[in-house]
Write a structure and sequence with these properties.
337 residues; D-Maltodextrin-Binding Protein, domain 2
């Protein structure tokens, strides 16, 4: 069983409702990664007053990877965070009873991808056999590659897999040492462009478009905190949806909000990164029709079955423990267009 640390109590005290006296409630929020284009929505929710309208004062903290926010939220160091739901599934299996769950899907399609070069023979899925694939062993996209391979009848024994480090992944492809790499679609693609690879030489194979039913990153919450503050959590999610709506309407403004917090970044690059995430991961047909945040039960069940190809569950996965849609605001408040 998961041990609840004193951080839970600290977070509950830190973010206790303060609506009655007219002061905003302080809510720390843990991102999965550094401040880049896709984090613009949370800054828009701050700068455009959406959190303030819900009585919240939100401070966003950068992270160090898709796993990073999960223990922070589970221990209560942060009441809310942003994390890969596939990592959350495994965390909950390994830590039964951990007080953390997903409450709003953000990446309706995960950014897991293979990015290859046409000049090296990679024009689509069929070209992967007989090629050399660069894959960092801890990479989230590489972790899901067996699912992608199974769904597309790829003989992995016919692929030369080259273990690479994160810093050398894109440079090795740019130099022609590998034919393709696994990675996040919006990150690896732009990293290669920045290294001078012509865009018309790049092929992006999004796993979600080729039989992989997995979801991507979601807003997660400490369940003890959520039980004590249900209206606050719903207000937070409403503000997040409004932030996404803002940056979808004006990606350039969203990118500038990122650069305001990360002056070392490049505003044009982050606008491209944000737009790529919007187009491929956030504003899907399902989200346009239903609003952001929810999940399809049949697809989630299929995703959990697919996960069994790459992970041996200790317990039968319980979808109700993994995702709780009861805190979502009304659908009208989650429509992005």
């Amino acid at each position: 069983m998961f041990n609840r640390f004193t951080g839970v109590a600290a977070a509950l005290m830190l973010a206790a409702p303060a609506f009655a006296d007219g002061h905003a409630t302080a809510v720390p929020f843990a991102l999965d990664w550094k401040f880049e284009g896709p984090s613009a929505a949370y800054f828009a929710a701050i700068d455009n007053g959406h959190f303030e309208a819900e009585g919240l004062s939100v401070e966003v903290s950068a992270g160090q990877g898709s796993l990073d926010a999960i223990p922070k939220v589970a221990t209560g160091a942060f009441p809310l965070g942003f994390a890969d739901i596939n990592s959350l599934v495994k965390f909950l299996d390994q830590n039964p009873g951990a007080p953390v769950t997903a409450v709003m899907m953000v990446y309706d399609k995960p950014p897991f991808a293979i990015v290859g070069r046409k000049s090296q023979g990679i024009n689509g899925v069929a070209d992967l056999e007989g090629s050399t694939l660069g894959a960092p062993p801890p990479d989230g996209a590489w972790a899901q590659f067996p699912i992608f391979a199974a769904e597309n009848n790829i003989d992995v024994s016919k692929i030369t897999v080259e273990p690479v480090g994160f810093p050398t992944r894109e440079p090795m492809l740019a130099e022609g040492n590998v034919d393709s790499v696994t990675g996040f679609s919006f990150s690896s693609y732009l990293n290669l462009v920045r290294l001078g690879v012509p865009e018309d030489d790049l092929t992006t194979i999004l796993m979600a478009d080729h039989g992989v039913d997995l979801y991507g990153n979601a807003i997660i919450v400490n369940t003890d905190f959520a039980a004590e503050n249900p209206a606050l959590v719903t207000g937070f999610l409403k503000a997040v949806a409004a932030g996404w709506k803002d940056v979808i309407a004006d990606p350039a403004a969203g990118a500038q909000m990122v650069i305001d917090r990360n002056p070392a970044g490049d505003v044009a690059l982050e606008e491209r990164r944000l737009q790529l995430a919007i187009d491929a991961n956030v504003l899907t047909d399902y989200v346009i029709e239903n609003g952001m945040g929810g999940v399809d039960a049949d697809r989630m069940a299929s995703a959990l079955e697919q996960t069994k190809l790459v992970y041996e569950f200790q317990n039968d996965p319980d979808m109700s423990v993994i995702f709780d849609g009861s805190y979502l605001p009304d659908a009208a408040d989650r429509m992005l267009k």
